Amino acid sequence: MTAVMLDGKAISAKVKESVKAEIADFIEKTGKSVTLAVIRVGDNPASEIYVRNKIRACEAVGIRSLSITLAGDTSENEVLDKIQSLAADKSVNGILVQLPLPAHINENKILLAIPKEKDVDGFHPENVGDLVLGNPAITACTPSGVIEMIASTGISLCGKHAVVLGRSNIVGKPMALLLLQQNATVTVCHSKTQNLSEITAQADVLIAAIGKPNFVKKEMVKQGAIVVDVGINRTENGIVGDVDPAVQEVASYLSPVPGGVGPMTIAMLMKNTLIAARRQCE
Ligand code: GUN
Could you point out which of 44, 139, 173, 221 has its C-alpha 20 to 30 Å from the C-alpha of 124? Predict the structure, then answer.
């Protein structure tokens, strides 16, 4: 079997195209613009690229963006002040603080300071709580993008065994909850999981988000599985995912790195910003 590639660029382009049309419609009907504020603290080179891509996507779909870059030694209180002023600004619909933050800043405190209704990342504890409870919620962009990618295959997740590798707050945990919402049977594996290969080999759908280059080998994957690679690992050989490319010999679908999940994350951020703007008008 040779896997069909899940083309994140093409799928995300469709999502952005529809968001662009919906934003134009929103602006026409309400007379209001849609604005996303993105805060970056410090000079993490990866964050710089991610934020640049987010701002570019805003331009492409008609979202006004505010890009705020703060020095790496900015105090936690200064970041909180900035968030508070954006929270109070009625013209700002979404606030995103790019992670990771410098070590002297408490990430939880920062994420809690972003009002739930402007939290386009879906990281606020109340938004996470809504996801757990199955209430309508703004959900984390990367896992939402993975769901959209799987949906593009036309294959239902209902009753499938989905195995998530990784339990981060940004990807693994919300991923598991979104898969559960789609009625998949979900197993979450992590660094302490025993007999990992036995579990991955039972997966109809395998999502890798552990940050270990080429960790998932073809021997660990069930014939015909859908495999989504969320890893972005910088190596001597360039950027590689968590999944060994040879997995394409056994998978039915495989998302490549780069060009897979990455562009989906940004498209879902655009969608979340539109959802936030709409809710603020209700
Ligand atoms: N860092 C890596 N992924 C993300 C994301 O989805 N949102 C934010 N805010 N920071 C990140």
Answer: 44
Ligand 1 neighbourhood includes 96 CB (under 6 angstroms): yes
Which of 98, 119, 204, 244 is the catalytic position?
98
Nearest CA to ligand 1 atom 1: 99
Annotated catalytic residue 130: no
Question: Angle 172-181/141-151 helices, nearest 10 degrees?
Answer: 40
The closest alpha carbon to 261, from 150, 153, 157, belongs to 150
Task: Give the confidence band of 192 by pLDDT, cuts at 50, 70, 90.
Answer: very high
pTM: 0.97
> Which residue is catalytic, options 121, 204, 229, 244?
121
How does residue 282 score in pLDDT terms, banded at 50, 70 and 90? confident
Ligand 1 atom with minimal separation from the 96 CA: 9
Closest CA to 166 of 145, 193, 204: 193
Distance CA 58, CA 60 (A): 5
CB of 265 closer than 6 angstroms to any ligand 1 atom: yes
54 is catalytic: yes
The number of CA neighbours under 13 Å toward the Cβ of 218 is 13
Q: Which of 212, 206, 281, 277 is nearest to 248 (CA)?
A: 206
CA atoms within 13 A on the CB side of 100: 7
**pLDDT tens digit sequence for 204-214:** 999 999 999 99
- Tell me if 170 CB under 6 Å of ligand 1: yes
Exposed, middle or buried by CB within 10 Å (0-12, 13-18, 19+), for 195? exposed
Measured from the Cα of 47, ligand 1's closest atom is: 1
Residue 160 CA, chain-centre distance (Å), reads: 22
243 has pLDDT over 90: yes
d(CA 131, CA 143): 12
